[in-house]
């Protein structure tokens, strides 16, 4: 039964969201790797004392990659549920969803390079 009370309903939505994020991080290997990379660059941000703008861009990049990966995983799970055997059209859909993750990851790599390349070069 759906709870229509505003605060209670939002709290339940948050509970489902946190549960979903936990499932992604603990069951999907690609998300585990990306989450780990997110932690590493967050630590690097503290070590290199990045600016507020750099923090915002880095945070958005991490969030973008993890979000798109979550949507990709959901699309794959739905496709596998609907049609467990290989099907050319399902494969096409899954490839497109994976391509979206690729674009997000490339954008995140670009953000990381713009932020950290000058800082790392100054060390040497």
TrEMBL record:
Entry superkingdom: Bacteria
Keyword tags: ATP-binding, Cell membrane, Kinase, Lipid biosynthesis, Lipid metabolism, Membrane, Nucleotide-binding, Phospholipid biosynthesis, Phospholipid metabolism, Transferase, Transmembrane, Transmembrane helix
EC numbers: 2.7.1.-
Record keyword Transmembrane helix present: yes
Taxonomic classification: Bacteria, Pseudomonadati, Bacteroidota, Flavobacteriia, Flavobacteriales
Annotated membrane topology: Multi-pass membrane protein
Pfam families on file: DAGK_prokar
Residue spans crossing the bilayer: 21-43, 96-117
Recorded family membership: Belongs to the bacterial diacylglycerol kinase family.
Compartment(s): Cell membrane
Enzyme class: transferase
Protein name: Diacylglycerol kinase family protein
GO molecular-function term, one example from the UniProt record: kinase activity
């Amino acid at each position: 039964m759906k709870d229509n009370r505003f605060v209670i309903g939002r709290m339940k939505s948050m509970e489902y969201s946190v549960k979903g994020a936990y499932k992604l991080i603990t069951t999907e290997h690609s998300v585990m790797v990306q989450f780990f990379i997110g932690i590493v660059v967050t630590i690097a941000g503290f070590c290199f004392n990045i600016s507020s703008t750099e923090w915002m861009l880095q945070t958005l990049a991490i969030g973008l990659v993890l979000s798109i990966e979550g949507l990709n995983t959901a699309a794959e799970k739905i496709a596998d549920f609907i049609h467990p055997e290989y099907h050319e059209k399902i494969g096409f859909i899954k490839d497109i969803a994976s391509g979206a993750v690729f674009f997000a990851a490339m954008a995140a790599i670009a953000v990381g390079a713009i932020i950290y390349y000058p800082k790392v070069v100054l060390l040497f």
